[in-house]
Amino acid sequence: MFANRFDRVRTAMARDGVDVLLLSVGPDLPWLTGYHAMPLERLTILVLPVDGVATMLLPAFETARVSPQPDLFRIEGWGETDDPIARAAALVGSARNLAIGDHTWSRFTVLLQQAMPAATWRNAGSVTGPLRAAKEPAEIEALQRAASGVDRVAAALRGGEIPLIGRTEADVSAELGRRVVAEGHAKVNFAIVASGPNAASPHHEPGDRVIGPNEIVLCDFGGTTEEPEGRPGYCSDITRCVFTGEVPAEIAEAYDHLLDAQQRATAAATVGTAAGAVDAVARGRLAEVELDRYFLHRLGHGIGVEAHEDPYLVDGNEVPLAAGNAFSIEPGVYVEGSWGARIEDIVVATADGPLALNTVDRELAVVDR
Prior knowledge:
Number of strands: 17
CATH class of the largest domain: Alpha Beta
Distance between the termini: 47 Å
Strand content: 15-25%
Largest sheet: 6 strands, mixed
CATH architecture of the largest domain: Alpha-Beta Complex
Number of helices: 9
Strand order of the largest sheet: 4-3-2-1-5-6
CATH topology of the largest domain: Creatine Amidinohydrolase
CATH superfamily of the largest domain: Creatinase/methionine aminopeptidase superfamily
Mean pLDDT: 96
Structural class: alpha/beta
Shape: elongated
Helix content: 25-40%
């Protein structure tokens, strides 16, 4: 798997005129090598030339954490009194067209640029982003496992197994997180619980508001899966809404339109369709009933080893969807000071059409506790 990714990355580097790729903390490194660098003030960096031997440079006392892959890269430790920036620059040598990981700490980026003033720099995401976006079959299987896990949590929520009324948003959020971990995730990335008027804030932070009867509760949660050692985890992301009582006609009607917009957008997410055009399908459907002004964000984001990555389904993105692209479809309606709703699934573009990885019911469920 990793050998294939090294080959694909080097092919892309050659095409784009990149002499050396420099990857530090962030999702690119585990995707390419299986190694998660600790986010420390000590530099860890993979120096990958388009031709020749790649080197994983990291603190000497951490080298035992790296699974050796001598066919792909050598491991080089630096001591506490060494200058890792100088060591990295020496590995780069005379190369001048460099790409550095998008998540590299600015302190290291600046020091590396100062150490190699004659070099030209670009974001490594221009090389790795399109490759990571086209998921391999094993990656889609990992995303499916992640989606199935949060589906089971969402089913418990919709079925009334998770009490809501009388509990704080923060308390319910913590329970959702515990359930996500119990369903095969190594960690929780987020667990939004937004009740009543708080549901009108797309990224509401769960707090001490007590959930009451006769109000909507928006729950958006996901995590990163537990994978075998040496393999990166993959992310889940789902949003479902429930109502703690009788649903008012206005909300029920708006929710039905939102669900139709979500389903139409999912159907439109076909290979070859521009990412922005899929956003337009959902937005256009909501415009028919004058709800588009309440849709405050893009339709969706890519997902993989990172919760948000390429491709982004947003107006103006003319890049066509490719087979293997995995992304969220999540239109929302947010009425400030009153209520909000969002429906979100992870979808994969395939040669046979869009494949929704999340399958739990999307209707507005009514719960009585």
